[in-house]
Q: What sequence folds into this?
């Protein structure tokens, strides 16, 4: 059970709406729903029900809501001890992929600011190899990269980190295992299906990132023969999908708050008979002992934040060192 789940429950009860609560919390409705479902599973009871009057708590939900209000009132007072200390102030830089940074900007930044009003997290986006390069040749100490779980279960298994491990010791914490699905336009008749088939993919062109991309390499043969698009960023890819010019393969949790998906212009669908490996997001950093207090705060809050979003998929803090070679 996480404080964020209790805060989500409080907001939903007060707003009487998942959609309004998601807007108030600057997060997505699917992420909110998953967090509440996980809390209900843990407590083994139903907390919320939908009625004509809106989303209201059950009898058990009323008790949890009242207790949650008291718990957060107490813990918020505790955070006041730390929120205004010099160690909890200043700037922290984090570099990650554009998809990951967009996801953080829609929820995590507000959570961090509420807990530590004098701590500024500055997000920098780049491709995966750029994340590694910036961490090697700049003062950035926190970075996030994604790997495909079908190929790798640990960043140390990749050539990507060879340059890092040759210079100093780095650690990798698994933040999230994000399942991937095929994105199709709501304009396409296939969007009405609960899931796609491999045969359905043959009539869809595929859009993916330019440059080396494992999506094109591993999956273009399932899609419209010889027809695919190489585009420079996620916005371009999603626009092509929304306009029904192509389909794409993306992780679902970290793209759930994208405008095209939130407004229903794009649907994410599984494919029967085709196992799409999840994207595994790792927080890369040097030993915690060398991080500044503010950087440690951000790191710890990132782990807690992703546990609340997907407690069944996000791993416990798993500090795997990337040792010197």
A:
């Amino acid at each position: 059970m996480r404080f964020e789940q209790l805060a989500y429950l409080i907001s939903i009860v007060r707003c009487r709406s998942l959609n309004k609560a998601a807007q108030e919390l600057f997060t997505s409705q699917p992420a909110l729903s998953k967090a509440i479902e996980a809390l209900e599973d843990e407590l083994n009871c139903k907390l919320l029900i939908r009625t004509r009057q809106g989303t209201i708590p059950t009898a058990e939900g009323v008790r949890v809501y009242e207790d949650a209000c008291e718990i957060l009132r107490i813990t918020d007072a505790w955070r006041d001890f730390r929120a205004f200390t010099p160690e909890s102030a200043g700037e922290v830089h984090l570099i990650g992929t554009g998809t990951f940074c967009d996801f953080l900007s829609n929820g995590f930044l507000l959570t961090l600011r509420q807990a530590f009003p004098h701590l500024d997290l500055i997000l920098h986006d780049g491709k995966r190899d750029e994340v590694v390069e910036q961490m090697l040749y700049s003062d950035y100490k926190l970075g996030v990269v994604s790997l495909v779980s079908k190929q790798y279960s640990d960043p140390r298994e990749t050539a990507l980190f060879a340059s890092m491990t040759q210079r100093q010791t780095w650690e990798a914490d698994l933040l999230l295992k994000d399942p991937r699905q095929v994105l199709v336009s709501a304009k396409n008749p296939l969007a009405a299906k609960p899931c796609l088939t491999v045969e359905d993919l043959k009539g869809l062109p595929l859009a993916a990132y330019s440059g080396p991309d494992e999506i094109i390499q591993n999956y273009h043969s399932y899609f419209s023969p010889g027809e695919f698009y190489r585009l420079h960023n996620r916005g371009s890819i999603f626009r092509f999908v929304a306009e029904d010019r192509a389909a794409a393969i993306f992780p679902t949790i970290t793209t759930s708050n994208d405008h095209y998906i939130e407004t229903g212009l794009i649907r994410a669908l599984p494919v029967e008979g085709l196992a799409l490996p999840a994207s595994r997001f790792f927080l890369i950093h040097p030993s915690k002992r060398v991080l500044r207090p503010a950087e440690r705060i951000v790191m710890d809050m990132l782990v807690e934040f992703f546990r609340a979003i997907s407690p069944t998929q996000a791993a416990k803090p798993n500090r795997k060192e990337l040792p010197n070679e």
Remarks:
- The longest strand covers residues 170-178.
- The chain has a mean pLDDT of 82.
- Residues 70 and 307 are 22 Å apart (CA to CA).
- The two ends are 39 Å apart (CA to CA).
